[in-house]
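Inverse folding, one chain.
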């Protein structure tokens, strides 16, 4: 088992990573919350179908009563209406201030449940059991919770620490292939920004990873969570260091938004964004061709990305609108070498234009 502590001024917590941990989830919840009698597990139908049984059995073993509460599946349900509907269901089921919520699902379930836990009866405890690769290495650690408004993503929310995060690499076996690969690009990102050995491992264990081999996934998740934990522990509120996590996300978000979130999965857009950042870094002499080529090769080795059919002008317009540009200069996280990035404040717009034009040809 891998145990990783996440420091927090509000409340430190741990992530536990182990093959099959879902089947012992009850034991860990009991240990941490000795007085728990009832938990309420927020999930979506698809995850419930595959993984509810194991969780229910493990809670029954430690005499904790569990109620599943379903929310509809998909990013478009990550909004206030869902939070309100879930809160009403909690009341009807008799959840009180001593109740604990469990988030069993991907990043959407985790973000919604964490937010609901912060405001239900002015706050109840919650546990994260992330079931997508992206949520295991990224969203379940760092305490950001919240929902979207029709005006934009993640505009309402709060930092709220879970009691713990239980990560079972084996639940990934039921994840659709494209969804899984999309998370792998975020793992490559983690390698590039901070930990070259993650990147090396992903270069040389390609087949094991694509097969979702339990031991390989456990190691990879552990390393990625360790990096994320280190970064967010040092910068809980995203004032400095935490910005490096946005590597690949400036152009990535623009691509998602220009295609109305229909063309790319998040990780796929981030993969293109990393390549764009690499091209910009080469153009502005922050990195060398070898680093760029290694990044592109690793990304491409994990599957085909949907084509970029977005005008460079559109991307620049979005960066300007999101106030990411100042006097024609853009703030960017650029790769220096594998394992190291730099936050650069004065990337010229034309370097961004050129990079996006390159993406269209790849
Ligand atoms: N809080 C943060 O710090 C943070 C960081 C990154 C992303 N996010 C958020 O995370 C969300 C994306 O999360 P996601 O990529 O996990 O998407 P998701 O939660 O929508 O899950 C993707 C799909 O996978 C299915 N699924 C989940 N686990 C499964 C399993 N084990 N087997 C089969 N199917 C399964 C779900 O039903 C869903 O259809 C976004 O809303 C994003 O804003 C938050
Ligand atoms: Zn991301």
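Residues assigned per position:
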């Amino acid at each position: 088992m891998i145990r990783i502590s996440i420091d927090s001024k509000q409340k430190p917590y741990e992530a536990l990573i182990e093959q099959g941990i879902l089947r012992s989830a009850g034991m860990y919840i009991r240990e941490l919350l000795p007085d728990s009698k009832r938990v309420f597990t927020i999930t979506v139908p698809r995850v419930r179908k595959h993984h509810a049984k194991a969780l229910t059995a493990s809670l029954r073993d430690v005499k904790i009563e569990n109620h599943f509460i379903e929310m509809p599946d998909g990013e478009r349900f990550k909004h206030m209406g869902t939070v309100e509907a879930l809160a009403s269901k909690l009341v009807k089921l008799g959840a009180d201030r001593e109740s604990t919520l469990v988030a069993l699902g991907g990043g959407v379930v985790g973000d919604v449940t964490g937010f609901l836990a912060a405001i239900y009866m002015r706050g109840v405890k919650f546990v994260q059991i992330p079931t997508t690769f992206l949520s295991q290495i990224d969203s379940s650690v760092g305490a950001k919770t919240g929902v979207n408004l029709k005006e934009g993503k993640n505009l309402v929310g709060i930092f709220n620490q879970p009691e713990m995060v239980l990560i079972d690499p084996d639940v990934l076996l039921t994840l659709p292939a494209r969804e899984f690969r999309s998370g792998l690009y975020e793992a490559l990102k983690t390698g590039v920004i901070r930990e070259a050995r993650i990147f090396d491992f992903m270069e040389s264990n390609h087949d094991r990873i694509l097969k979702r081999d339990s031991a390989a996934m456990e190691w990879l998740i552990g390393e990625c969570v360790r990096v994320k934990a280190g970064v967010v522990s040092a910068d809980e509120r995203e004032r400095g260091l935490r910005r490096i996590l946005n590597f690949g996300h400036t152009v990535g978000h623009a691509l998602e938004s220009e295609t109305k979130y229909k063309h790319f999965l998040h990780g796929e857009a981030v993969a293109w964004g990393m390549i764009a950042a690499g091209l910009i870094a080469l153009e502005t002499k922050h990195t060398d061709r070898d680093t760029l080529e290694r990044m592109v090769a690793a990304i491409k080795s994990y599957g085909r990305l949907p084509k970029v059919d977005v005008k460079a002008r559109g991307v620049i317009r979005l960066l300007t609108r999101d106030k990411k540009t100042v006097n024609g200069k853009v703030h960017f996280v650029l790769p220096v070498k594998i394992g190291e990035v730099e936050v650069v404040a004065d990337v010229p717009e034309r370097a961004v234009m050129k990079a996006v034009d390159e993406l269209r040809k790849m």
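The pocket of nicotinamide-adenine-dinucleotide (ligand 1) is lined by residues 44, 46-47, 50, 73, 75, 78, 105-109, 111, 131-132, 134-135, 138-139, 142, 144, 154, 171, 174-175, 179 (CB under 6 Å). The mean pLDDT is 94.
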